[in-house]
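Example protein was shown:

_____
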Amino acid sequence: MRKSIFYFILAFFSISLVACKKENLSIDKDPLVPREVARFVLARLTDSTKTFFIPANNGDYKIPVGFTTVSNEDRKITFSYTSTDATAGVQYQAPASVTIPAGKALDTLRLTGLFGGFSSASQIDTVVIRITDQGAAPSTAYILPTKITIYLRQFCDESSPVLSMFAGTYAHTNELFGTGAYGPYTTTMGVPVPLTATTAKISVSNIYDTGWGPIDFTLDWSNPAALKTTVIAGTVPGADAGDLNSAYAGLPVVVRAHATTPFGSFSGCTQTFTLYMQLGVGGLGYFSDVYRVILNR
């Protein structure tokens, strides 16, 4: 019996030593070493698709980027940019590479949005950014973000319109005079003239598509929820009332706000304008119908 107990204790002690030896080997012989792989650093995988609203003075969209390890040497990460609508130097600017300094694992890729490269806030361009050099060979064991899609568009605040953006042609102008619809045709707007902190004057040429104008209107954005346009009463330069009715040929065309629909509307973000007015013949009177003109780029 004593001999059996002795062998049992000896066996237990031997097993304990073996187990202890194996445990030490698993820790010391095969330490976990992360692989060096370049990637975008995102808080969530859903951050791989983002929208950048570009301010009027341009601005940078900042994307954290880096390696999975720290090195005592500088390392470079290169990128490719692809788009079916945005052009580098027109809608955006971005570097071909970012250098991660020695002793660091992270830095920032800055994509600069160019506000003036967009015709309006309704224009949305897409840029896909890819890391083209991941460092170590890609592996399915590493699910790291190496592609980001950025939607670029102008930041727009209806309470602070960028008036200079309104100037130019509106190739999709349509009108309604009574029940007679016409369009599309092209009108032209000059550079708006500020009147107060929340009003300006615009001048639109070729309304009625017979070379009239310009006809002047005021813009009022004092209430961003209800932007208003109002025609400025007067005689229309270059207009002949014979365009309205041959019986009035040779007489001037006059405009004023219509009593039933004195105000139109506009959006600085989409650059659309709805203009209402009442047409008349100088010295004779006004037509009863509302004349509506809608300007679209």
The chain has two domains: 38-154, 163-295. The radius of gyration is 35 Å. Confidence is low (pLDDT under 50) at residues 1-29, 136-142.
